Amino acid sequence: MQSRLIACYVSQVNKVILGLIALVPSQDEIPVYLVDDDLDLLDALALYLAQVGFNPVLFSSSQAFLSFDELSESGCVLLDNHLPDMSGLDVQKKLSARGDKLPIVFMSGDSRFKDVVAAIQGGAVGFLEKPFSLAELKPAIEEALEQARQQTEALAKLSEPDIPSLTRREKEVYKLAIKGYSIKKIAEELDISSSTVEFHRSNILRKAGVTSIAELIARALESR
Predict the structure, then answer these.
(1) Which of 24, 28, 75, 119 has its CA 20 to 30 A from that of 53?
(2) Rounded distance, CA 100 to CA 130, Å?
(3) Looking at the structure, do residues 92 and 69 belong to the same domain, yes or no?
(4) What domain count does the chain have?
(5) Quick one: which H or E segment has residue 94?
(6) How far apart are CA 193 and CA 186, in angstroms?
C-alpha cells in the first residue's frame, strides 16, 4: 500500500512539473516543516511543495525536528502521527510547552478517532488521512500558513511586555521568547550564554506569575 501511495504522489507531482496542474505564485519560500519517517514520501511531498513555491524542510524523526533551532514563526508543520521515536501528538505537546505556536497539519495512515480529537483540541489546523491527494494537501497548508500569519501579527503586538518590573535584558529575552525562539537561539541572538538566558527566562516567568512561556503568551493574548 505504501508503495502505491508514494507512486500516487509522484504521479501528481509529475503533473505539476509538466504544467498540467497550475502553479501558484511564489510564497517567498515560506517554510513548511515535513516530519515523517518514510523518506520516499518525504521526498515526494517536498518536490511538490517546492514546485508550488514553498520551502520544504525535511525531518525523518521527531527528535530531529524538535532539536532544530531555526524554526520560523511564519511557517507550519506537516506532521506524521505515527513516528518511531515519538508520536506526533507528543511532538505537539512539546512544542506547546516550550511556546512554539507553529500551526500543525497532522497526517496518518492509521488514525484513531481519539487521536484526531486530541490533535484538534491541541490546536491542530487539520488531520489528513493517508492516502490523501495533493488537492487536499494544498488548502490544508494554506490554512495553516494563514493561521501562522495571524499569530505572527498578534505576537508583534506583544513586543512590549506588560510587566513593568522587567530589566532591560529581561525585556530583550522576552521579545525573543514569545516568538518561540529556543534558549540556544536567544543566546546566539543576544550574544550571551544559554545559562544566562535561562536565568532571565526564569525571572520573567516568576515576575509574570506563570510557569511557562506558553502560558505567558496565552495570558498576554487574552488581555489584548
Answers:
(1) 119
(2) 26
(3) yes
(4) 2
(5) helix 88-97
(6) 9
Which strands form 31-35's sheet, in the order they lie side by side? 55-59, 31-35, 76-80, 104-108, 126-129
Cell of 22: 497550475
Amino acid at 124: A
Q: Name 105's bridge partners.
A: 78, 126
Residue 142: the pLDDT is 92
Point out the residues of the chain with pLDDT beneath 70: 1-28, 155-160, 220-224
- With 0-12 / 13-18 / 19 or more C-beta atoms within 10 angstroms meaning exposed / middle / buried, residue 189 is middle
Closest C-alpha to 78, from 11, 139, 7: 139
Q: How far apart are the C-alpha atoms of 107 and 50, rounded to whole Å?
A: 19
At 209, which CATH number?
1.10.10.10
pLDDT of residue 157: 65
Q: For residue range 155-202, what is the model confidence (pLDDT) as tens digits?
A: 666 666 778 788 999 989 988 887 777 888 899 999 999 999 999 999
Q: Structural domain of residue 215, as residue ranges?
A: 157-222
Do 106 and 136 lie in one domain? The reply is: yes
Which grid coordinates are listed for 49? 511543495
